[in-house]
Design a protein that fits this description.
The chain is built from 3 helices and 5 strands. By secondary structure, it is of the alpha+beta class. It has one domain: Glutaredoxin, CATH 3.40.30. A 5-stranded mixed β-sheet has the order 1-3-2-4-5, sandwiched between helices. Strand 4 and strand 5 form a beta hairpin. The longest helix has 14 residues.
Length: 93
Amino acid sequence: MAQFTEVDGRDVGDIRIYALSTCGWCKKAKTFLNEHHIKYAYVDVDRLSPEETENIRKQQLKHNPSGSFPTIVVGNECIVGYDEARLSALTRR
């Protein structure tokens, strides 16, 4: 089963990012969280085996039916794409 990579920081809730290693917006989202020292976990879907990709994509599609990247799941809410305003709200938690 595919594992998310944990990035340590300030805990503002369960944050999971479904990303692509080649996606500029995915990199921006990770950089933003890193610069604000926010704890999150991510998986680069394009670096998974075909079996792992299928399972992870099923999880991602539950949150973001369009399947676009990045898909950022924060608890029960989903941020689709790089949305700096919504990410900034996390820093105020």
